[in-house]
Amino acid sequence: MATIGAMTASTLPPSGWRQQALLHWRMTRPAFLLVTVSAALVGIASAASCGCGFDLPAALATVLLACVAHAGANVLNDYHDARNGADAANTEGLYPFTGGSRLIQQGQVSEADTRRWAAMLLLLLIPAGLLLAARNGGGGLLLVGAAGLLIAWTYSAPPLS
User: Fold this and answer.
1) What is the pLDDT of residue 116?
2) CA–CA distance, 30 with 34 (Å, rounded to integer)
């Protein structure tokens, strides 16, 4: 059982589904997802302005999947930075810009919960990305998606972190 401060994962305070949903939301560091929304919208606008057309369902799916990818990378980063001690050592960081969500360090979530949430978010991208690429004939989209998943992993996870 992973120790979190003075608590273990089995002794974390119980909470209802709303509190759990809020914790999972906070684990994604949602304020930073605005950067991804902006970048996706710029890409969509660029494609539309160059005559490639505009497909609202595909555009919405693109923005959603980009945000899920970013959120998964953030959660994965919190997990690996907790495992390697980087976030715990960052006691004088500039929150929220350094030190992750701090939820593991505050004992609000366990490392195991963080690992599971990161895996769920990132694994959700595979079938959803395949579907989006198949619907839009995007072999290039598959390469961009695979590169994004690789970058999310290598940014935080050993051996390349």
Assistant:
1) 95
2) 7
Q: What ranges do the domains of the chain cover?
A: 14-156
The 3-state DSSP class for residue 105 equals coil
pLDDT tens for 27-36 read 999 989 999 9
Single-letter code of the amino acid located at 38: S
User: What is the CA angle 148-150-155, rounded to 5?
Assistant: 95
Q: Is residue 27 within 8 Å of residue 78, measured between CB atoms?
A: yes
Residues paired with 7 in a beta bridge? 4
Query: Sign of the C-alpha dihedral, residues 23, 26, 28, 30?
Result: positive
Tally the residues of the chain: 161
CB atoms within 10 A of CB 94: 8
2 pLDDT band, cuts 50/70/90, is very low
CA distances for 6 relative to 15, 66, 91, 100, angstroms: 18, 36, 17, 20
The distance of Cα 116 from the centroid of its chain, to the nearest Å, equals: 12
pLDDT per residue over 113-143, tens digit each?
999 999 999 999 999 999 998 988 778 888 8
